Amino acid sequence: MAKNILILGGGNGGTMIANKLRKHLARDVWNITVIDKDNRHIYQPGLLLVPFGLENPHKIVKQRSKYIAPGITFVLDIVTRIDLEKRLVKTVGMREFSYDFLVISTGCMPDASEDAGLSDALGRNAFTFYDYDGSLALQTALKQFNGGKLVVAIASLPIKCPVAPLEFALLADWYFTKRGIRNKVDIRFVTPAMGAFTKARTSAVLGEITAEKNIAITANWNLGTVNAGERRIENMPGTERIDYDLLVAIPTNVGAKVATDSDIDDGMGYVPTDPHTLQVKGYSQVYTLGDASNTPASKAGSSVHYQTDTVLHNILCEIHGRSPEPLYDGHAT
Q: What phi, psi does 78 have (nearest 5°)?
C-alpha cells in the first residue's frame, strides 16, 4: 500500500518541499498531496512596490497549480483540524486525510483585529501593504497625499519580511522627492525593535542611512491603540502618542487559525518547532516550514528556501530509519 506525505499550504515552502520530495520518492510508493484554500499565489515582495507604481499588481498573482510538479495531488480546500495524535487532517469539504509524514506550511498573516482601533482606521487614514487589497488602496492614498506626517508603524514583532517596513519608508522618501514635495512630508518609522532593524550592526548602518534621508525613527515602541478620529497612535502603556496624517501600519502577524483551533500553537498561531531539525516538538514525521513555525529565523521567502533542504533531508532520514539531523542554523539571504 502506498504511503502518504501531506503538505498543508501551497505557498513557497509547501510548493518547494512537494517538488523536491517528488524528485526523490517513487510515485508508486509515495503519494504527495498539497492542500491550500485557493489557487492564487501572490508574490509578496511585489506588494511593497505596488503602492509606488513600481509593480503591476496583476503580474504578481499566479496560479499555485502552475508551480506544482506533475505527480503531486493539489487539493483546493480549507483545513479545519490537524490531529497530530491520530495523524489525521480534516477540511471544510468534510474530507479526511491520513498521513505518514506531515509538513505544516500554513504561513502567517497580518491581523488588524489584534491591534486596538486599527481595523476601524484601515481604509480611512490608515493603510497597509501587507495584503493585496491593502497595497492597492495604499497606492491611491499616496497619490492623494500632498504633505503632512507620514508614519510607518510596526505593531509588534515578529512580522513577515522584517525589513519591508523600513524599505517602505525609504521608498516613500524617493517617491515624494520624485513628486517634488519631499519638503512637505515628515516621514517617521515606528518600530518595536531597538533601532532601524532587529540586528544591532545592521541597525547602525541603516540608522545612518535614514538619518541622511531625514527619516525619523522611534524605536522600542509597541503599538497599543490607533485613534483614527484624532489621527494618532499610542504606545502599549498608553503614555506616549504620535500624530499622523497618513498611517502605514503593519498589523500584528499571527499564524494560521487552524493551528490555534487544533491546539498545536504557541498562543499566536505559530507551531512549536525545533529550530535546527524543523520537526514539530514532540512529534516524529511532522515538520513545519517558513512562517508557520515559531523558530527565531526571519519570516521571509529566503529563509524557507534553506529550510526546505533541511526538511527534505530529515524526511528522507526518517524514511530510511535514521533520526533527523540539526542542520538548519537560521540562515537567510
A: -105, 120
d(CA 306, CA 284): 21
**Centroid of chain to Cα 22:** 26
Please state, in angstroms and rounded to a whole number, the distance separating the CA atoms of residues 196 and 191: 8
Q: What pLDDT was estimated at residue 333? A: 73
Place of cell 515628515: 186
CA distances from 315 to 31, 208, 318 (A): 14, 44, 5
Q: Is 258 helix (H, G, I), strand (E, B) or coil?
A: helix
Do the Cβ atoms of 182 and 173 come closer than 8 Å? Answer: yes
**Closest by alpha carbon to 68, among 27, 4, 9?**
9
Cα 181 to Cα 235: distance, rounded to the nearest angstrom:
29
Identify the three-state secondary structure at position 266: coil
CA angle centred on 297, ends 54 and 10, rounded to 5°: 65
Q: How far apart, in whole angstroms, are the C-alpha atoms of residue 16 and residue 238?
A: 44
> What are the backbone dihedrals phi and psi of residue 45, each rounded to the nearest 5 degrees, phi first?
-60, -25
Q: Low-confidence residues of the chain, pLDDT below 50? A: none
Q: Return the closest-CA partner of residue 127 out of 97, 54, 136, 231.
A: 136
CB 187 within 8 A of CB 172: yes
Whether the predicted model's global pTM rises above the 0.85 cut: yes
CB 157 within 8 Å of CB 251: no
* Predicted local distance difference test score (pLDDT) of residue 1: 83
What does DSSP assign to residue 272?
P
Beta strands 232-235 and 101-104, pairing class: unpaired
Q: How far apart are CA 117 and CA 233, in angstroms?
A: 9
Q: Which DSSP string corresponds to 227-249? A: ETTTTEEEETTS--EEE-SEEEE
Q: How far is CA 13 from the centre of its chain?
A: 12
Helices (H), the chain: 12-24, 45-49, 118-121, 132-144, 164-178, 200-212, 257-261, 301-319
SS3 296: coil
